[in-house]
Amino acid sequence: MRNGNRVWTCRCREKQRKEASRLQTVNIKLNVMNKLLMEEKDQLQKQVSQLVCENGCRQQQLLMHVDFFETADYSDEISELVRE
User: Fold this and answer.
1) Count of C-beta atoms within a 10 Å radius of residue 34
2) H/E element holding 74?
3) Distance between CA atoms of 39 and 45, rounded to whole angstroms?
4) Stretch 10-34: mean pLDDT, rounded?
């Protein structure tokens, strides 16, 4: 029985080594994928920040144009159009 146990123990250890090796490989691949995803996330965050900034600038420009047209006095131009 002792020889049988030794054989079984050796096989069990070999299976454990193979599984540990497989898991290490999977872990390495997952770490690489995680790094790539983090880099992509950083790039996307920079793009979002830039777009938010551009959007704010455009909103300010639009508000300036709206304020200009709301405060501008067109009474002379309207009077001339009515006379024609």
Assistant:
1) 10
2) none
3) 10
4) 96
Tell me the C-alpha distance between 47 and 39, whole Å: 13
The model carries a pTM of 0.60
Whole-angstrom CA distances from 54 to 46, 50, 61, 66 are 12, 6, 11, 18
Amino acid at 36: L
Spans of all domains in the chain:
2-83
Please give the Cα distance from 37 to 33 (Å, whole number).
Answer: 6
Residue 42 has pLDDT above 70, yes or no: yes
Please give the Cα distance from 46 to 39 (Å, whole number): 11
**CA torsion through residues 68, 73, 76, 78, sign:** positive
- At residue 15, the pLDDT reads 94
